[in-house]
Amino acid sequence: MPQPPFQPTDRTSSAATDVNPVVALKELVARLYREQNKVQDLLSSLGFALRSFNNLNQFLELIPLIATRVTDADGGVLFLYKSNGQVSLEKLHCQDIHQRKQIRKALETATSAVTTALTTAQIVPATATLDAQVSHHLGSQIQLFGTTILVKQAERGRLYVFSSDPEYTWTETRQKLVRLVADQTAVAIENDELKVELRKKERLDRELEIGAEIQLRLLPRQCPNVPGVSLAARCQPANRVGGDYYDFIPIERDLNQADGKSSNPDSCWGLVIGDVMGKGVPAGLIMTMTRGMLRAEALNEHSPARILQHLNRVMYTDLENSHRFVTLFYSEYNPQTRRLTYSNAAHHPPLLWQAATKTVKRLDTLEGMLIGLEAHSNYEDAQVQLEPGDTIIYYTDGFTDAANQRGDRFDEERLEGEFKFACRHCQDPQAILEYLFAQVHKFISGATNQNKDDMTLVVMRIN
Length: 463
Hints:
Elements: H1 10-52, H2 56-71, E1 75-81, E2 87-94, H3 97-117, H4 127-138, E3 143-151, E4 154-163, H5 172-218, E5 229-236, E6 244-250, E7 269-276, H6 280-298, H7 304-322, E8 326-334, E9 339-345, E10 351-354, E11 359-362, E12 382-385, E13 391-395, H8 397-400, H9 411-425, H10 429-443, E14 455-462
Helix pairs in contact: 1-2, 1-5, 2-5, 3-4, 5-6, 6-7, 9-10
């Protein structure tokens, strides 16, 4: 008699029912754990790439791939907005190689449609327009999610992830992961732009260093040996390149000498100090131009007033176009007669300490406008007879405009008082120069913006 088929007992059936859910739960937990580890590994790889890659293009290659992997989607695409408002299809990743060509063609068509729709008034493409075009050309069967790439609160691109699986859904977790990848993309773009700006700044810094070096070489390296005179000079720019200028020009010289020094010990000497309105590179360029033109004019052996008049006419057009002006004090000293002839183009008048009377006199003229203000300005000559012990300081407004914490200026009156003290107690021009610089720095000590302007001082004493 055949045996009946096996029928599980109630106990056997109950055991099978109890075991299956446990196994299934364990498998679910294991799968979730694997998925979590995969997502963490992918995001860690993206973070490592962000820290390690110096090439932005290489980093952007990973973005659609990582976004696809962390969401188990079919593909991802990265669009970036250009500065002219156009949209650019940057990177595409598609799991299905055969579908990739079709997807790219649809996205390129969408890009062209967005470009056509843009008006000239728009700076960046409207996100809604891009979303609509991408969704339309990919087709309704594609499950699509997009998020904006924000750099400093400005829309710089759009990251899309898509799936052709009809059962695929964009859960909150998947959306957060895509946004996280987009945020990393924004950080990479910002970092790259900062690197570009840093390279520009480094290049500019190097150019400024070269400019400062050239300008420093154009200023006298040392004071000349003028018979019967002791000299000291210093230019302290607020920036690396400044607009202050001083010079010593031999009026009669042997042009065959390579060093340009006077061959005649009794030659007259031109002493000049000037200040270009403004600071930095523009002022430095104008200062350099002024130096060359003034030296050329001084060779003509005209009077100081005529030299300034010619200089003003030559420089007027260039200065008018640059919206800058130059103050200039030009003087010529004759060692044989100890006579100083001068003319002033609206510069701070030098101070003359007369040893015999122990008084201070300002060396100024009635006429004399800024260089570059009017094409036909008139300038006036004046002269003074110097005696042994007499001392003159030529200075720029960096001294008198220097301000302390309370906003008080060092001003002309305070400078004159310190100059009188220095003439009584300092042994030579270099000591006077050091003392006056020290007093100004002491006055502005603790100020928020110390030395906001260039400071130049020339000291001349008759032995």
